[in-house]
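Honest question from a wet-lab person: if I give you the sequences of every part of a complex, can you actually get the arrangement of the whole thing, not just the pieces? Trying it with mine:
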Amino acid sequence: MLWIANCLLADPSPREGALRVEGQFITGRTSHLAVKVSTLDARGLTLVPAFVDAHVHLSVAGDAGLIAREELRRGVAGVIDLGAPEAALASLDLRPLRVRFAGPLFTAPGGYPTQTWGRDGHGLPLTTAGEARAAVGRLAAAQARFVKLAFDPRGPMLAFDVAKAAADEAHRLGLKVAAHALEADAVRLALDAGADVLAHTPREKLPADLLERMKGKWVISTLFAFEVAPERLAALREAGARIAYGTDLGNERTAPGIDPRELALLKAAGVDPLRAATQDAAELAGLKDLGRLSVGGAASLLAVRNLEPEGLSRPVWVMNCGKMVV
Ligand SMILES: [Zn+2]
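Yes, you can. This is the full assembly:
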């Protein structure tokens, strides 16, 4: 049993307090700066929940095992992998990093991303509704929690009935439907098909009717990787969309760990970056024991010097499931 004391606790608003850790879990929380036996003194530091990155590609970023270790060391305890070949899904069990995944992007033959970065099975070409339902069934059996549909006008696009069949089957099996849709027309198709999550902030300005339809749905930020104006995300936030932090790790100019550039862009969009990267991203991922500093949750947390993007991205120390990560 250990008390981490003399610090601020921010999940996301900071207040004074101390946490008790036993085994893998947080078992106590007090507002007193109590110094007790077996205390880890965190004077001058703020504890925040470990981060969840809601959009990564572990198998694209490099050796998935090494990437997972780097993620944990730098403060990311959970991820959603939004694009990996079916054959690679078994290798995404990278515990203690918590991984939720979608598997390959559903697309048309020759469609995005099969002609570019997704040649090796990252895209799954589908032509009929029956094929789509069968693919969702395989992914659900492989423990996927998401299905991802690609709507990219640079190539042939998934036929609407195929996309709709995939989304309906995913919902029937309890999976969420994420969509790659960067333009207004693509977002419209994605929503018509039944998408719950936009895997990126759309690059194009969305008309009022589409913003209205995003109320209560999810958007994963990826503002830095896709060079999207924060105003696009601000409009979605104002329309009532839920926002989760995501970096698109594996894309160009990304690296394992917490990205201060993405956090700064979230802030510019009027979104609390800490909340988007902890409790909200954890909720989207379905990782119920992450994202908060609450009793019963995993003792997965970071000690940081301040809550600014640079401070958050460089934790002084990292604890994962009650163990210091080195
Ligand atoms: Zn991606």
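Two things worth pointing out. The radius of gyration is 20 Å. The chain has eleven helices and 18 strands.
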